[in-house]
Specification:
Protein name: PotC
Radius of gyration: 24 Å
Transmembrane segments: 12-35, 69-91, 103-127, 133-156, 177-200, 235-256
CATH architecture: Orthogonal Bundle
InterPro entries: Bact_Polyamine_Transport, MetI-like, MetI-like_sf
Shape: globular
Order of helices and strands: HHHHHHHHHHH
Organism: Planktothrix agardhii (strain NIVA-CYA 126/8)
Keywords: Cell membrane, Membrane, Transmembrane, Transmembrane helix, Transport
CATH superfamily: MetI-like
Helix content: over 70%
Number of helices: 11
Largest sheet: none
CATH topology: MetI-like fold
């Protein structure tokens, strides 16, 4: 009788398991202590949902969340329009200095946040624009624009350019060809880029803290001001909610990408 093959675990599997354990252990610990009855996270005193209830009754947190949503939605909405047009223009047209312009448009992806924050603050001071919630929006448009344009340009590279030419040959104007032919195909990429930019905008602390006016606290700024005296269970609960929301947006964006890829292959 042939001997049964022994079950072996390769070092690659062990390495992957250790890597994921190292990455997600802090999140599990954070989630565990968000249900801790103790006001301080030093020891476990019992299970409770009190901190989640208090979180939704905290006016400062709700105000900061509202500010973050206003900043994220406005910045992403503006970046979606400009970023899509920029990606299409760079892919479809040739003009002097195109390479320089393309390189400069993606600089916010590689420039450190602290450098962008200081540069934005200096610019706002030079042109004498008072700091407010809308200066945060204008600063966030800069890096949201780069992320949206990058995702849309990646989607655009996989499309057949002859579809627009066919629409033009059939009598459509360039604007009609863009709206009725190109834009529906780009929509999964636009939505994915917007979701990515929105999560990054909600998560931003450095740029917002440098460009915010008095009373214009965003959610990361409010969290940072509270953890100076120690991490409380309500902040743990808020962090868990933010992690779940970000994960949902990431899964939704991936779902849209898969759906768009499936439609493209069928066509």
């Amino acid at each position: 009788m042939a001997a049964k093959p022994k079950f072996r675990i390769s070092w690659q599997v062990v390495f992957v398991c250790l890597m994921f354990f190292y990455m997600y252990l802090p999140i599990f610990v954070l989630t565990f202590f968000s249900f801790n009855k103790s006001r301080y996270s030093a020891g476990w005193e019992g299970f409770t949902l009190e901190w989640y209830v208090k979180l939704f009754q905290d006016t400062r947190i709700l105000t900061a969340l509202n500010n973050s949503l206003i900043v994220g939605i406005c910045a992403v909405g503006i970046a979606a329009i400009i970023g899509t047009l920029m990606a299409v223009g760079l892919a479809r047209y040739h003009f002097p200095g195109k390479g320089l312009y393309q390189g400069a448009s993606y600089l916010p992806l590689i420039i450190p946040d602290i450098a962008m924050a200081v540069a934005t603050l200096v610019f706002l001071a030079a042109v004498a624009i008072p700091l407010s919630l809308w200066t945060i929006v204008s600063a966030h448009v800069v890096f949201c624009l780069a992320y949206v344009a990058l995702v849309v340009s990646t989607r655009l590279a996989d499309l057949d350019p002859h579809l627009e030419e066919a629409a033009l040959d059939l009598g459509a104007t360039p604007i009609e060809a863009f709206i009725q032919v190109l834009l529906p195909q780009l929509m999964p990429g636009i939505i994915s880029g917007c979701l990515l930019a929105f999560v990054l905008s909600m998560d931003d602390f450095l740029i917002a803290s440098f460009t915010a006016g008095s009373g214009a606290n965003t959610l990361p700024m409010e969290i940072f001001s509270r953890i100076r005296t120690g991490v409380k269970p309500d902040i743990n609960a808020l962090s868990v909610i933010l992690i779940l929301a970000s994960g949902f947006l990431a899964l939704f964006g991936e779902y849209l990408r898969i759906q768009g890829e499936g439609k493209r292959l069928k066509n």
